[in-house]
Amino acid sequence: MGCCNKRCGLIAGAVFGAAVAILGGILIPVGNSIIQGTVHKEVVIEPGTTAYDTWTAAGITVYRQFWFFDLKNPLEVLQYGAKPAVVEKGPYTYRTRYLAKDNITFYPNQTVSFLLPFGAIFDPSMSVGTEEDLITSLNLALAGAYSLVPTPLHGVLEKMIRDSNSSLFHYRTVKELLWGYKDPMLKEDVGLFLDYNNTFDGIYTIYTGKGDVSKVGMIDSWKGSKSLQFWNDPYCDMINGTDASSFAPFVDKKKPLYFFNSDICRSVSASYEQTMDLKGIKVYRYSLLDSTLASPTVNPDNKCFCSDMKSTKNCTLAGVLGLSTCQDGRPIFMSLPHFLHGSQSLREDVLGLNPHVEHHKTFLDIEPTTGFTLNFAKRIQVNMMYGPSKVITVLKKVKDYTLFPLVWLNETAMLDDETADMFKKELMSRIQILEIAQQALLGVGIAIFVLCLVSYCVVKRKEKSNKSKLIH
User: Fold this and answer.
1) Is residue 212 part of a domain?
2) Is residue 407 located within the same domain as residue 437?
3) 3-state secondary structure of 179
4) Domain span at residue 239?
5) Are 193 and 277 contained in the same domain?
6) Cα-based distances in Å from 279 to 201, 228, 285, 313, 428
7) Residue 34: pLDDT band by 50, 70, 90 thresholds?
8) Which of 166, 305, 391, 450 is deepest in the core (most CB within 10 A)?
9) What is the pLDDT at residue 422?
10) What pLDDT sits at residue 433?
11) Is 83 inside any structural domain?
């Protein structure tokens, strides 16, 4: 009787274990559904959600760090046509995006529009010097006029240069180069980021994700248009993806992420690089591909971004994007810092450049469940061109066209410890608890079932052995 009770107990235990395991198995799709429901609710951009609170916050610390290329041999370049030799000087750090989004308006088609205010506050504690530090750099006004004025009018430009006592290079403060100064030749303000403060980027209109969470954050229009007007080509003028602050939830690392950046006047894509830990949160690191700024001979998709045959050597030059069509005609060229992934000739024409992938690449760290960008570094270099002239005195010794690096910037932000803790507590901890419960029930149930089944077999064998002994 006792053995019978033991066998029955073990069978009951096995049944119980199987039931627990089945419950754990059932919880997996149910739990996944709960997780998806929670995430889908919280990533929609509407009042009351985690996404909306993060999206509208003005307290997120975003920095722009600037490294200038300080020219060390201006006389040799002017008098003997020597290659410019530069030394990197920086960082000079500014806090930006400290103002909340403005003019937020929701629409019935599940979109919302907003303006993104610009502003910069100097942070001396994160800088190598003050805004009054002096830099020897290319004369912005002269280089710009040289690129825009046709050769037959070089005589007029030469007179303007002489009358204003200007030269190809000048000595300016960090503040002047970035935010502007009165140029003696043009008699107007000139600067790399002139009028940046107290201006706006936008208007942006994006999808809120309500009704279709796969479209959350995707740009519907920018400045009232669904496409760009810079490249005179339907492909290059497309506005793809989001503004990179977030993406659709449940990120698939096998697929690229698309985003638009107004600084470079185009959309780009980033691909999965590796999985990392960011303050206890698993993130996917995405970075730009080498092909993003490849020459059209390597990447035919870039053909429509090549609009200046002279500066790009008939579109064979890699690593540079001319922005004159979206910079009010200013002959600005964008590249990655130190011409990373650019043609070798770019680094041979200017001495002192040393590209380094880890220091100079652009990347995004995305939390894959929510699609939120928790850390990023946007790195861009600003360049201008000068070249030879038979009429302009300061250019008579110049042997060839040169893309001169002026400054490179690193715009970066990372969630702080407080936000990371809140993120883990409010969202990730719920998901993790549910996943642990699923795994625990499944694991414990299987363990009980197997243990009881093995024990039952042992008891059964022992009973058979005892019965055989009694018979004998």
Assistant:
1) no
2) no
3) helix
4) 61-98+120-197+227-414
5) yes
6) 31, 38, 14, 46, 13
7) low
8) 305
9) 75
10) 52
11) yes
- Structurally, the chain folds into a number of domains equal to 2
Residue 24 pLDDT > 80, yes or no?
no
Tokens of 179: 């935010």
Side-chain half-sphere CA neighbours of 416 within 13 A: 6
Residue 323 and residue 454 in one domain? no
Q: In which residue are the tokens 């005892």 written?
A: 466
Co-location of 247 and 304 in the same domain: yes
* 140 contacts: CB under 8 Å, gap ≥ 6: 177, 183, 190, 191, 192, 384, 406
Segment 73-115, tens digit of pLDDT = 999 999 999 999 999 999 999 998 777 888 999 999 999 999 9
Q: How many residues does the chain have?
A: 472
pLDDT digits (tens, 9 = 90+) for 40-70: 788 899 998 878 887 876 556 899 999 999 9
Task: Report the C-alpha gap between 84 and 350 in whole angstroms.
Answer: 5
Q: Is residue 49 part of a domain?
A: no
Residue 460's alpha-carbon distances to 93, 436, 447, in angstroms, are 77, 35, 20
Same domain, 321 and 182: yes
Looking at the structure, tell me whether residues 31 and 136 fall in a common domain. Answer: no
DSSP H helices in 43-179: 50-56, 74-80, 140-148, 154-163, 174-179
pTM of structure: 0.84
Q: What pLDDT, in 10s, does the model give residues 434-455?
A: 555 555 545 555 555 455 555 5
% pLDDT > 70, the chain: 81
Give the C-alpha distances (Å, rounded to integers) separating 229 from 203, 236, 241: 15, 9, 17
Contact by Cβ (8 Å): 116, 205: no
22 by Cβ neighbours in 10 Å (0-12 / 13-18 / 19+) ranks as middle
In 10 A of CB 373, how many CB atoms? Answer: 24
404 and 439 assigned to the same domain: no
